[in-house]
Amino acid sequence: MHPQPNSVGIVTPQTAHFDTPIALKSGATLDSYDLVYETYGTLNADKSNAILVCHALSGHHHVAGFHSEQEKRPGWWDNMIGPGKPVDTESFFVIGLNNLGGCHGSTGPSSPDPKTGKPYGKTFPFVTVEDWVETQVRLADRLGIEAFAVVMGGSLGGMQALSWTILHPQRVRHALVIASAPGLTAQNIAFNDVARQAILTDPDFHGGDFYAHGVVPRRGLRLARMLGHITYLSDDVMGEKFGRILKNDVFQFGYGVEFEVESYLRYQGDKFADSFDANTYLLMTKALDYFDPTHHHRVGLSAAMSPAQADFLVISFTSDWRFAPGRSREIVKALLDNDRRVSYAEITAAHGHDAFLMPDPHYHALVSAYMKNAAKGLGI
């Protein structure tokens, strides 16, 4: 069944253990931690062809390929990464990793605290985009990668790519910032808080220590995902996909599932509650809220972006109302104010924020062309 002809094939996650303590932005310190990652393609002799793919809110290290012959769905950005794909693994060595605080192998709230042997739970410290970048730097050092050919990501992943160019400008040649923003709007922070409140007020949350009680705050996690999912889609896509279709053709005059869209959202919520950790969801949404390159320096975005030396490709999507194209244009303006080389594309697409995950031909052709030029310029 697998692998498909243009797939990276069967891949095996790896774990990097770090014993050097890391001081986090929150003021807390982790004495040690693990990062789980996958790689695709071959690192060249001078290690100049490495690409770091940063994941979004519910993403992880499994970016492309399959973990086994039996796995039905490939990694979350498989349509973008692989042999002959826009991010061509015939040329590039691609790294995907699960961020610190995650729930797919990297150290996070559900991991055992070495001091107690019990899950960290509510004691796991807050993490920020900048913290993730520092852990990614350590992984790059471990792999002997002095500078990335490209750091790329969509949504929260794009924020990490931006942060890389500010914090470590000499270590990024190109940055792809897709469907992202230089900081959340008040509306986005509000959505995140409603989602968090759904989890925090779930009776099974137990202040974050639900592991000890043998339960999962499913109701809260389910509601949080349902709310988030609504914001990832556009009104047009939801209308086209579900309209006002009833499951049983007649009104039931109750509060059960009557409309197809209700059924879909509950399915997505249940699926998410089965696979994601509630504490990780809380941490990831707070990392989104906290990201703001201008905050610590009390300067405008142009000044905050002034350290960046990379070349940029910034992409937005017309129907993305969560991270609207205007937010991407803020990034472009800041880069142009600093005389950086930046290409910008606003893709006409119907899928809303999730468009960055879709195999849109125009979008993929654009990324493919940029990556080929990048490879040529880097002598890859």
From TrEMBL:
It is an enzyme of class 2 (transferase). The keyword Plastid does not apply. Transfers a succinyl group from succinyl-CoA to L-homoserine, forming succinyl-L-homoserine. Homodimer. Substrate binds at residues 225, 354. Residues 49-346 form the AB hydrolase-1 domain. Its main location: cytoplasm. It catalyses: L-homoserine + succinyl-CoA = O-succinyl-L-homoserine + CoA. Keywords: Acyltransferase, Amino-acid biosynthesis, Cytoplasm, Methionine biosynthesis, Transferase. It is found in: Cytoplasm. The record marks 322 as: Important for acyl-CoA specificity. Belongs to the AB hydrolase superfamily. MetX family. This is Homoserine O-succinyltransferase. Its EC number is 2.3.1.46. GO terms for biological process: homoserine metabolic process; methionine biosynthetic process. The active site is at residues 155, 320, 353. It comes from Sulfuricella denitrificans (strain DSM 22764 / NBRC 105220 / skB26). GO terms for molecular function: homoserine O-acetyltransferase activity; homoserine O-succinyltransferase activity. One of its GO terms (cellular component) is cytoplasm. The keyword Amino-acid biosynthesis applies. Pathway: Amino-acid biosynthesis; L-methionine biosynthesis via de novo pathway; O-succinyl-L-homoserine from L-homoserine: step 1/1.
